[in-house]
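question for whoever is on the cluster today: can someone run the full assembly for these? four chains, 386 residues total. i dont have access anymore since they changed the login thing
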Amino acid sequence: MEKKLTAKERILRVAEQLFYREGVRAVGIDRIIQESGVAKASFYRNFATKDDLVVAYLELHRERVMGNIAHARQQRPDSVLAQLRYLMEYTADRMKLPTYRGCAFMNTAVEFPETDHPDHVKALDSRNEVWNHIEDMAREAGLPKPRELTEQLRMLWSGAAMVAYINKEEFKPQSFSDAANALIDSQAAAAAK
Amino acid sequence: MEKKLTAKERILRVAEQLFYREGVRAVGIDRIIQESGVAKASFYRNFATKDDLVVAYLELHRERVMGNIAHARQQRPDSVLAQLRYLMEYTADRMKLPTYRGCAFMNTAVEFPETDHPDHVKALDSRNEVWNHIEDMAREAGLPKPRELTEQLRMLWSGAAMVAYINKEEFKPQSFSDAANALIDSQAAAAAK
DNA sequence: AATGAGAGAGACAGATCTGTCTCATTTCTT
DNA sequence: AAGAAATGAGACAGATCTGTCTCTCTCATT
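^ ran it for u. tokens below:
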């Protein structure tokens, strides 16, 4: 028997879909209230403001992304470098899904450009946490310049996310994987000589 | 003696600054009217809607970007490949400027996610025109897979623009240039063997 | 000097969005 | 079963934004 979802859960579930698919600014509170079948009072009892909901949405997304990293670590238990390569490939493949609408953190940061806006701050913090973890992996893998490599991978991955979002039809996961591996190999080669 | 700017010119000039610095959705018509010292009627005599102004802003930006490409071609008249490398380095260096706020085309596309929104369409068209030109350069340079390389450079450059925008303090033009050259070299090496 | 286009100032309408409040009803706890 | 807490429905206020309209003034052309 299915558990009945609480108002808060329904709101968050609908918000996640709508915010990601149509953008945070484009989706109003009324829309979320209507589609989640919740009363306005119930909404504001669970979230003080819309921004609070946005922060909760970003937090949910952060957890999912960290889950992806954990997944990659489990899939390639023997080599951290293999975990890195797998993570890049795995996420790039997912960008090809028709539901892919870019990186929620980047999109939200762009939608709220004021650097001290709570949504902007939360988006950046989440993004940074993820990439700090990846940098740790690069360091753990014993690569000579984990910092530089992570910077490069972050640029490449971030751009891939944008291309997959805006120029979906032209995005080729293989091109991305090739490029990512070229960057990793390039650094490994520089270290070997 | 300085020429007096017409209302339209003043509006466009102010709009370019404000839209780029603070985002299109965040800047209202009233703000632009006030800061350009123009009457509301004068605004709507020159631009039918706000979207029309946004399209004009993007068109202006497109011209500037194409100007950057022309600049790169002039700076390295002998080798198209050198033009490509120069263009990447030149634009990456400019991303380090404190006024840099990311790629206007990507930002606007994210701000208006509806794919048939006139601002979204104009942003995408402009972006595609630029990268089609770069692909032509890669082809002209005699590279084996100009398409793939351009895709990779577009991902890397787009991500660099985002990093330079959102994580400004951590952006290193040198890391970008290294990565871009690694991608170019990687393809050249693959072709040579 | 006369005329007409362009421009400034700002009130106003209409739409939209966030957030508040009331009240009846349902659901959970004990 | 009874009281307490959560929920649904929706009116309403207040802010903000786009776009319209009127009226006046300036300036260039003739």
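summary bc i know u wont read the tokens: Residues 6-7, 37-42, 45 of chain A lie near DNA strand D (CB under 10 Å from a C1'). Chain A touches chain B through 42 residues (CB under 8 Å).
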